[in-house]
Amino acid sequence: MKHSDIAHYRQLNSLRRRFMSRGRRFPPSIEPAAMVDVVLLVLMFFMISSSYVTRPGVEISLPVSDRSVGIQMNAMVVTLTRNGLVFFNDQRTNLDDLPAALERARIENPDLPLVIEADESVTVSTQMKVVGQANRAGILDIALATRGGETREEF
């Protein structure tokens, strides 16, 4: 390289340094419309992929018990209302169709217990009829649902 070429190169280099910006002119920004789209897509994904637990719109008043033992959450549930309605796993049925439903449920999930939620006005004979149907279906782990009462002290 000639001396004049080197001088010319240094002059161009100094100009480049003088006119080039030292930092970014525009800092990166997040577009609000794009962010809203992403949030809505994630929200829709979770809403569609989640399962909802619904209960029948039937109100029952469970009998009070001084003792209550917990049972696992995903148990099979038979609900008996004061109006004579019967629900099995939140689907309406009747006492005649209940044995077949209990048998199918036991075959699908043999380890699940059965919880009988009976209104306090439902007779014991109706509750025992359901217990007998469950035993004939092969379900041996059966619990009657109650609500906790006040603890009483015995003297």
Structural class of the helix and strand makeup?
alpha/beta
* Percent helix: 25-40%
Tell me the overall shape.
rod-shaped
Rg computed from alpha carbons, rounded to a whole number of angstroms: 36 Å
Supply the CATH class of the largest domain. Answer: Alpha Beta
Beta content: 5-15%
What is the terminal-to-terminal distance? 112 Å
CATH architecture of the largest domain: 2-Layer Sandwich
Q: Give start-end ranges of low-pLDDT stretches.
A: 151-155
Q: SSE order, as H and E?
A: HHEEEEHEHEE
Q: What name does the CATH topology of the largest domain carry?
A: Nucleotidyltransferase, domain 5
Arithmetic mean pLDDT: 79
DSSP strand count: 7
Kindly report the spatial arrangement of strands forming the biggest sheet: 4-3-2-5-6
Could you explain the architecture of this structure?
This protein has 155 residues and is an alpha/beta fold. It contains four helices and seven strands. It folds into two domains: 3-49, no CATH class; 64-148, Nucleotidyltransferase, domain 5 (2-Layer Sandwich). It has helices spanning 3-19, 32-49, 98-108, 124-136, and strands at 64-65, 76-80, 86-88, 91-93, 114-118, 142-144, 147-148. Strand 5, helix 4 (124-136) and strand 6 form a beta-alpha-beta unit. Helix 3 (98-108) crosses helix 4 (124-136). It is rod-shaped and about 115 Å long. The N and C termini lie far apart (112 Å).
